[in-house]
Amino acid sequence: MSGAVREAPVFRVEGLTRSYRVGDADVRALAGVDLEIGSGELVVVAGPSGSGKSTLLHLLGALDAPDAGRVFVEGRDLATLGERQRTLLRRRRLGFVFQAFHLVPVLDALENVEYPLVIDGVPRAERRARAAAALDSVGLGERMSHRPDRLSGGERQRVAIARALVHRPRAVLADEPTGNLDSGNALRVFELLAALGREHGATVVVSTHDPELVARAPRVVTLRDGRVARDERRPEAVS
User: 175: part of which helix (H) or strand (E)?
Assistant: First the structure.
């Protein structure tokens, strides 16, 4: 009798290696990383500056390609996908949040959030409704008409989170999303990512060097010198 078919992890990497040329030297960012991240998990990738956190997230998100090793997203080997397929994967299955917000300054909050849906050809009425709902979910329902220069840093990052979730991705990759925020706003943004991930059933991977955020994560993957130094699951942690 055959058993149940095991669901493919959202992310799986095998032997992941990536180096960069800096001046006359090759700097190895990742040196043989093996990792699996399942559906609905909240995972913090921790480690000091230069440990490979951002490189790992960029490879998971098909924003970069490894020198060696393989990256699987929902069971698909990224190396077998053409550029158009990788673009569609990023656009429809993944959401991204970065430290620098990357909001369009001439667009208001609603227009910034609906922009991915514009690119994807979603009809205007539907995309406006979905963008408004996403902003409501991050507590900015009354700030939709404000441009980024009229929002605080914490509010800008919440707009970025709403934009990352508006197309209902399978996973959200947040690279140092609290790096430009004070400690209070950093904690609020992290808790919001965790809550929205649970609400949407999305896998959330957050890179950070903030010890307070690390302490609240149910799973922490610590990188050191481009390798996984520790992979700790803490079911008792509440984010």
Answer: strand 171-175
Strands, E assignment, 67-157: 68-73, 76-77, 94-98
Q: Are 160 and 148 in contact (CB under 8 A)?
A: no
In the predicted model, what is the mean pLDDT of residues 57-66? 95
Which domains occur in the chain, in start order? 39-63+82-233 (3.40.50.300)
Q: Name residue, tokens 């998971």.
A: 60
229-235, long-range: CB < 8 A, 24+ apart: 229/47, 231/35
Give per-residue pLDDT as tens, 125-134.
999 999 999 9
- Residue 166 neighbours by CB under 8 Å, 6+ apart: 113, 114, 116, 117, 130, 131, 134
pTM of the model: 0.91
Pairing of β 171-175 and β 94-98: parallel
